[in-house]
Amino acid sequence: MSTHRASSTTNAGNAYQALAEAHDDARWAFGTGFDDPLSGVDTTLPDDVPGGKLAEYCLMLGDDALIAAHRLQEWCTNAPELEDEVAIANISLDLLGQARLLLARAGRADGTGRSEDHYAYFRDEHEFRNVRLVERPHTDFADLAAFLLLFGSWRLALLGRLTGARDPVLAAIAGKAVKELSYHREYAAGWVVRLGDGTELSRRRMIAALDRWWPFVDELFHGHPAEIQLATLGVAVDPAYLRGEFDTVLASVLSAGRLSVPDGAPVAGVAGRTGRHGLHTEALGGILTELQGLARAHPEATW
Amino acid sequence: MTQDSQGESPVRAGWPLYEVFVRGKRGLNHVHVGSLHAADDQMAVRHARDLYTRRNEGVSIWVVRAAHIVATSPDERDPFFAPSGDKVYRHPTFYAIPDGVPHM
């Protein structure tokens, strides 16, 4: 892109220049180049931010995206319509992209220089720091829509605030992710309303789906000590502050779909430990077996 | 699902077909890129975004119900198009196009 920009300054007087540049390729419908989300971003660590804690935080946000992306991939060949299958795959790839950047940042922040692959493939279950919401298998399409609405609304509120984080890399990742998550939330809200306000069957399934997810929502707003410590340094967000925005968004979507906010009790932790502490539901083991099996069987393989 | 403006039955076995037009960049025309199925107009725009702009192809999308497009039929080809084939004087071939004017 930069070469085009340079050439248009030299031809600033020519109104046709913008049309003439790029797009000479007759195959434009195959798409154009992509932008590196971290281009021009200063990747040095801020001096007063504890690297270990920042790495921990990047793993938390990265693992949320990685495990959610894995669950969404399970919809490939299983979605009700081809168009939605592509939409779900796109969303999954967006989240996988966020996970890659965050896990890579963790390796930089903790000083070990470990790669994104190391964190994805060679950590054990208790080392994963994702919230338990992302682990539960999706049982039907209403379940998927409910998950995407809850997860997307929460993550959008979280990363929206992180665009001002003091770690420039985290801020840049958040800036890219906010646009993606806005679309995920919109896609999910459309389906939640459509199913909630649809037929008797779709409505019954939508209500059941929300009831199944609701116990995992409370955990989203309880910060781990590392998050809260970093929040005081302006590097992280204390998730307790996200509840207001989340509740407002949810109330407006659910009321449009003639649905009410569920009221089931939250799933318990163990001695105060939850997903952020490395305590998970049994569903995570199955995900990791599939996710890590190949990489662990062939640790020297490249792809 | 609300009944659509065409007065068709609200219950259909499949979703209607939409045609998709994408504009590659500002100043160019929308170009037909393909079709898709969607339950309503808004869903069609979202699906078009997911199916046809995921490799950075466009800055604007149009969708239209395929049933709303009126097209010529192959049977009418001769009366419609053949008469323009031999009118060389309709082609502005007798002056040069300046170098700075693309897409002509």
Note down, in words, how this protein is organized.
The complex is a heterodimer of chains A (303) and B (104). In chain A, 57% of the residues lie in helices and 0% in strands. By secondary structure, chain A is mainly alpha-helical. In chain A, helix 7 runs parallel beside helix 10 (243-256). Mean pLDDT of chain A is 89; it is low at 1-13 and 23-27. Residues 1-7 of chain B have low confidence and may be disordered. Helix content of chain B is 16%, strand content 20%. A 3-stranded antiparallel β-sheet of chain B has the order 2-1-3, covered by helices on one side. Chain B has one domain: Ubiquitin-like (UB roll). The longest helix of chain B is centred in the middle third of the chain and has 12 residues, at 41-52. Chain B is flat. The A-B interface holds A 14, 16-20, 22-23, 28-34, 81-84, 86-87, 90, 183, 186-187, 190, 194, 198 and B 1, 15, 22, 24-28, 31, 33, 36-39, 42-43, 46-47, 49-51, 54-57, 100-103. Chain B: Pfam families: PaaB. Chain B: It comes from Tamaricihabitans halophyticus.
Compact summary:
The complex is a heterodimer of chains A (303) and B (104). Chain A contains eleven helices and no strands. Chain A has 303 residues and is mostly helical.
What distinguishing features does this structure have?
heterodimer, A: mainly alpha, Ferritin, 0% strand, globular, B: Ubiquitin-like (UB roll), three-stranded antiparallel beta sheet, 2 helices, 3 strands, PaaB (chain B), PaaB_sf (chain B)
Q: Total number of helical segments of chain A?
A: 11
Most residues in contact, chain pair and counts = A-B, 28 and 29 residues
The low-pLDDT segments of chain B are: 1-7
Element string of chain A (H = helix, E = strand): HHHHHHHHHHH
Biggest beta sheet summary of chain B: 3 strands, antiparallel
Describe how the helices and strands are arranged.
The complex is a heterodimer of chains A (303) and B (104).
Chain A: H1 2-10, H2 17-20, H3 51-73, H4 82-109, H5 116-121, H6 141-162, H7 168-196, H8 200-213, H9 225-232, H10 243-256, H11 283-297
Chain B: E1 17-23, E2 30-37, H1 41-52, E3 60-65, H2 77-81
Antiparallel strand pairs in B: 1-2, 1-3
